[in-house]
Amino acid sequence: MSDKMIRQNVIDELDFDPSIDAAHIGVAVENGIVTLTGHVASYTERVAADKAAQKVRGVRGVVEEIKVRFGGETPPRDEDIAQRAVQMLDWSVTVPKDAVQVKVQNGWVTLSGKVDWQYQKEEAYRAIRRLAGVAGIMNTIEVAPRASVPDVRAKIVAALKRNAELEADAITVTVKDAKVVLEGKVNAWYERELAENAAWSAPGVRAVEDHLTLG
């Protein structure tokens, strides 16, 4: 698929998504790598644009350079964003209380701390990504190792085989020191994300290296 066709398909996908105002988003494609520029009104919209581009067939990677602008409104102070973020984390039944710390600078939220499971780290991110005034999120929360290497690998392989969209036999899983390495081939870009999600779902995984290629 040519870069020109990929670019048009990405533009169409952005226009199709009702959660995205694509009027101020620029799209460039080179060798299957999509670069998104411009500005949107919220961090949630920025994430949605990134995911929309990743779904398009032929896309090999996405460089997301979209900025968050708040129009004519005065953006909330960092102190206010931090207070609301902490409140949202306290309300979450999934994130352990006092396990996550919040830092805000120029609208960028940094999450730190340590949890036992990857889904708790992801839930902390989801809890605050829709807050007004958030320009971006850096999720540096650590996942404490809990499971043995054979157990982690077995859970990942089983998760891959349960997913009908993945050819599990084409993916090699290696686990060492709580780090998972994925190698092999997938048929589409979004399948890489499916494989990564399967890897992160195993208890104790602290890092995932994705070396999967498009076949």
UniProtKB/TrEMBL annotation:
Source organism, top-level taxon: Bacteria
Record protein name field: BON domain-containing protein
PANTHER family for the chain: BON DOMAIN-CONTAINING PROTEIN
Residue ranges of every copy of the BON domain listed in the record: 2-70, 77-145, 148-215
